[in-house]
Structure to design on (477 residues):
C-alpha cells in the first residue's frame, strides 16, 4: 500500500511564502536600480531582462520550496505559475509597464522559479530519503527501544464532589510492532489513559504529573498546535461506538478526506486521496465502491471497519483501539480483531487495545496490563499473566471468566464494587475486596515491583506470593 508523504506545519508554508516574496521584492528593487535608470526607461533589451530575472526567480523558489518542505520536483511548476501570475498582476496593475515588458519580466521570474522549484523538490526528496535510511538504521541498531513510553502518568477530573483521580501513576512502554492490552472493569481508567495519550480531554481534566514520550518527544510538553499535527499522523484512535464516530450528513469519504486534508493540505491531489481511501477500504475488508456512501448505509461491522480505515489514513505509528468490538456480535468481533492483527502485521505499527473483555486481550496482544481504580496493578506478557497471575484482582477476574475449551467449573464472582475515586481507600485500592489483604495493604500503597527482569513482568501487590495458581490452565499464548 502506498505511503503518505511527510509534511511540515502550515506555519512553515507561511514562512516559505514570506521568504519567496522577500527575494522577489529585492529583485524588483535591484532591477529598478541597475537595469532601469531614474527616468524609468530600460537601458537593456528584453533578453537581458529575461536572463537577469532568472536568478532571483530561481533563488526565490529554492528558498521557499525548501522552507516549506516541498519534496516533489513538480513544485517547480507550481512556483512558476504563482510567480508568473503575481508578476503579471503587479506589472499590469501598478507597475505602469508595457505589456511586452510585463510578459518578459514574468517569464524571467517564472522560468527561474520552475528550475528552482525543481531543484528544491529534488533536494527535499533526497533529504527525506536520507532521513528515512538513517531512521531505519537507528531502528535496526536498537530495535527494542520503546516507541512509546508512559512514565508515572497522573490525570484528575474536577467535579462538584471533588477531584477524581482517574489515572494515578500509570507507567508502561510500547515497542515498535507490539500489541499491548489494557483490561479492567468499567470506570477503572482505561479510556482516560487513552485520551491522555492523545490529549483529547475535557476542560475539567488536569495532568498532575508524568510524561508521555513518543519517539523521545514528551507529548505533554508540546503546544496544542503541534499536538494537533501529531494526532492521526503519529498516534491515532479507533473510538468505541462506531455510529457515534461519524457525522451522519457527510459521506464516509468526505470525513476521511477531511482528516487527510487537515494534515497534508495541498500535498495530495484529489486522485491520490481517493486512491488512498480505496486502498484503506481494501485493507480493512470493505468494497472501495462504498466510499461515497453515508454512515447509515453501513452495517455495524462495516462502520467499525471504516473507523479503522480513518484511523489509518495518515500512517500513524501507534493506534489506540478503545473497545473496538463494542455492540458487535461474536462473529463480527472475531473478524474485526483478525483484520486489526493483519493490518498491524502488514504495516508494522504498534497497537494499544482497551477492553473490559479479558478474552479479547488474550487473543490479540503480546503484553497485557491490568488496571484497577485508576492504577496499573499488573503488567507482563499476556501468556504469563493468564497462566500465572500475581495480583489478586487479576486472579479473581480469571476465576470469574468462563472457559470454552477448559474443564467445566463453577464461576467465582468478583464481589464488591470499585471504590469512589473522589475519596479512594488508603493503601492498596483493592484491599476492601481482596481476600488476601493484610494490615499493610490497608495502610501502604504498593508500587509496581519488577519480579521477572527478563520478561519485564511487574505487579503492585504486597502479597503477590500468596496468590494461588489459577485452576484455569487452558489459555494458550
Amino acid at each position: 500500500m502506498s505511503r503518505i508523504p511527510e509534511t511540515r506545519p502550515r506555519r512553515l508554508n507561511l514562512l516559505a511564502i514570506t521568504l519567496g516574496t522577500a527575494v522577489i521584492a529585492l529583485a524588483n528593487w535591484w532591477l529598478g536600480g541597475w537595469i532601469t535608470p531614474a527616468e524609468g526607461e530600460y537601458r537593456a533589451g528584453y533578453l537581458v531582462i529575461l536572463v537577469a530575472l532568472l536568478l532571483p526567480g530561481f533563488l526565490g523558489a529554492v528558498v521557499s520550496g525548501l522552507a516549506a518542505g516541498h519534496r516533489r520536483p513538480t513544485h517547480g511548476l507550481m512556483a512558476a505559475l504563482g510567480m508568473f501570475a503575481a508578476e503579471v498582476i503587479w506589472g499590469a496593475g501598478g507597475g505602469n509597464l508595457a505589456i511586452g515588458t510585463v510578459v518578459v519580466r514574468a517569464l524571467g521570474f517564472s522560468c527561474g522559479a520552475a528550475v528552482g522549484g525543481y531543484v528544491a523538490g529534488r533536494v527535499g526528496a533526497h533529504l527525506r530519503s536520507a532521513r528515512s535510511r538513517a531512521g531505519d538504521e537507528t531502528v535496526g541498531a536498537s530495535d527494542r527501544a520503546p516507541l512509546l513510553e508512559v512514565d508515572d502518568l497522573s490525570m484528575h477530573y474536577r467535579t462538584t464532589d471533588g477531584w477524581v483521580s482517574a489515572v494515578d501513576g500509570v507507567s508502561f512502554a510500547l515497542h515498535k510492532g507490539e500489541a499491548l492490552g489494557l483490561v479492567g472493569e468499567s470506570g477503572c481508567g482505561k479510556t482516560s489513559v487513552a485520551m491522555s495519550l492523545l490529549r483529547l480531554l475535557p476542560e475539567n481534566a488536569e495532568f498532575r504529573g508524568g510524561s508521555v514520550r513518543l519517539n523521545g518527544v514528551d507529548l505533554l510538553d508540546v503546544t496544542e498546535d503541534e499536538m494537533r499535527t501529531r494526532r492521526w499522523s503519529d498516534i491515532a484512535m479507533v473510538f468505541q461506538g462506531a455510529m457515534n464516530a461519524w457525522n451522519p450528513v457527510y459521506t464516509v469519504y468526505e470525513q476521511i478526506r477531511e482528516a487527510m486534508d487537515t494534515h497534508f493540505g495541498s500535498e495530495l491531489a484529489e486522485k491520490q486521496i481517493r486512491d488512498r481511501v480505496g486502498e484503506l477500504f481494501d485493507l480493512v475488508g470493505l468494497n472501495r465502491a462504498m466510499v461515497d456512501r453515508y454512515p447509515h448505509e453501513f452495517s455495524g461491522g462495516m462502520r467499525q471497519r471504516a473507523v479503522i480505515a480513518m484511523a489509518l489514513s495518515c500512517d500513524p505509528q501507534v493506534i489506540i483501539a478503545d473497545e473496538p468490538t463494542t455492540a458487535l456480535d461474536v462473529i463480527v468481533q472475531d473478524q474485526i480483531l483478525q483484520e486489526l492483527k493483519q493490518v498491524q502485521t502488514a504495516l508494522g505499527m504498534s497497537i494499544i487495545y482497551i477492553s473490559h473483555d479479558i478474552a479479547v486481550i488474550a487473543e490479540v496482544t503480546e503484553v497485557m496490563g491490568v488496571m484497577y481504580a485508576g492504577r496499573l496493578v499488573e503488567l507482563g506478557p499476556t501468556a504469563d499473566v493468564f497462566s500465572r497471575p500475581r495480583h489478586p484482582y487479576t486472579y479473581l477476574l480469571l476465576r470469574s471468566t468462563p472457559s470454552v475449551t477448559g474443564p467445566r467449573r463453577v464461576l467465582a464472582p468478583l464481589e464488591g464494587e470499585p471504590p469512589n475515586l473522589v475519596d479512594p481507600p488508603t493503601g492498596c485500592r483493592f484491599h476492601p475486596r481482596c481476600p488476601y489483604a493484610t494490615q499493610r495493604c490497608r495502610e501502604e500503597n504498593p508500587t509496581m515491583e519488577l519480579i521477572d527482569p527478563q520478561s519485564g513482568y511487574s505487579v503492585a501487590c504486597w502479597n503477590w506470593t500468596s496468590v494461588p495458581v489459577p485452576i484455569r490452565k487452558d489459555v494458550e499464548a
Notes: The first helix runs from residue 10 to 35.
